[in-house]
Amino acid sequence: MSNDVSILGKHTEFFTSPDEAKLEAFPNRTPGRPYTVMLDTHEFSSLCPVTGQPDSCHMTITYSPAEKVVETKSLKYYLASFRNYPAFNEQVVNRILDDLVAAVQPRWMKVEGRFGARGGIQLTCIAEHCPENRPA
To answer: Is the pTM higher than 0.70?
Structure first.
């Protein structure tokens, strides 16, 4: 395992905001083969910056790794750091995409947040990095 991975295999406290959280990655063992990784959680939540009420979300992260792969325990802790973070849904999805792209520099990545309905309207936000490299 890479020396860059410090959270895996250790008890670590949850972060209180994504500004404090650390996304970790390890070397892709098959960088020459295009493949897709899908990470999916129904347990994501953040706070509405206006009302302070929680926004629950089904979050799906799909990407084609290049040289690095995201370490999933650090991703879990990173996503949990949004629990008390006030931001609009669109900001949350774009922030997650930006932070993951900075951490792993994928060939392609898509972050999709399907937020719980409010006032009868369900919001889904999809943000994509390098759509020209999207797998067929």
So the answer is: yes
For 63-118, what is each residue's pLDDT tens digit? 999 999 999 999 999 999 999 999 999 999 999 999 999 999 999 999 999 999 98
- Annotated active-site residue 48? The verdict is yes
Coil, strand or helix at 132: helix
What stretches of 20-88 show up as alpha helix (H) in DSSP? 72-80
Q: Are 89 and 123 in contact (CB under 8 A)?
A: yes
Selecting among 48, 99, 125, 130, the annotated active-site residue is: 48
Q: What's the pLDDT score for residue 1?
A: 43
User: Cα-flanking dihedrals φ and ψ of residue 27, to 5°?
Assistant: -65, 140
Let me know if 117 is exposed, middle or buried by CB neighbors in 10 A (0-12, 13-18, 19+).
Answer: exposed
d(CA 36, CA 51): 37
Q: What phi, psi does 39 have (nearest 5°)? A: -120, 130
Q: Is 130 a catalytic residue?
A: no
Nearest to 132 by CA among 31, 46, 64, 80: 64
